[in-house]
Design a protein that fits this description.
By secondary structure, the chain is mainly β. Helix content is 0%, strand content 56%. The strands form two sheets. The chain has an eight-stranded antiparallel barrel. It starts with 6 loop residues before the first strand and ends with a strand.
């Protein structure tokens, strides 16, 4: 139920950042649907080697049920393409790889440490399990799925790639 205080999405994901020296990391996020098409939330990205970036995003999504023509449980599978934009704040240094080699740069242009960072991205989520009975406890997910996206950070080279699990918690339905 959109607009209900217990209607939340949680995401846990792995992250691959080929433009950074330490390329592998992960993150977690909590999101609240304003409507079925708009979701706002906060995340914390971490890349091995100590790079941390808390951020907030607004997502525009379109829920689809591409297999509903098959009937039965296939109608529960939802594919949700999305695009998003946000802002992050790196709170620890980042190293980058350039054509000249591997460098730890302390300047604000590449490192971007402590500087606002624009975030844009796109991806898709696939909901593959939906609870058939009403949710009675806050810890019971309403649905579980997979999510993947490609993201760009201003001030950093190349894109970042994420793949993870998402869950939807909505008490009472």
């Amino acid at each position: 139920v959109t607009g209900h205080a217990t209607n939340w999405y949680g995401v846990l994901y792995g992250l691959y950042a080929p433009g950074l020296n330490d390329k592998v990391g992960g993150g977690l996020g909590v999101f609240y649907p304003v409507s079925q098409y708009i979701v706002g939330g906060v995340r914390l990205d971490w890349v091995d080697g100590g790079f941390w970036m808390p951020n907030g995003t607004v997502t525009f999504q379109v829920p689809t049920h591409p297999l509903s023509f098959l009937g039965g449980n296939w109608t529960n599978i939802m594919v949700m393409p999305f695009a998003y934009a946000g802002i992050g704040l790196p709170v620890s240094g980042a190293s980058v790889i350039t054509t000249a080699g591997r460098f730890n740069i302390t300047g604000h242009i590449i490192d971007n440490n402590g500087q606002a960072t624009a975030i844009t991205g796109y991806g898709a989520a696939i909901n593959f399990w939906t609870r058939k009975t009403p949710v009675t406890h806050w810890y019971q997910p309403k649905s579980i799925g997979l999510i993947a996206d490609v993201e760009t950070w201003s001030g950093f080279p190349k894109q970042q790639y994420r793949f993870g699990l998402d869950g939807h918690w909505s008490l009472g339905n």
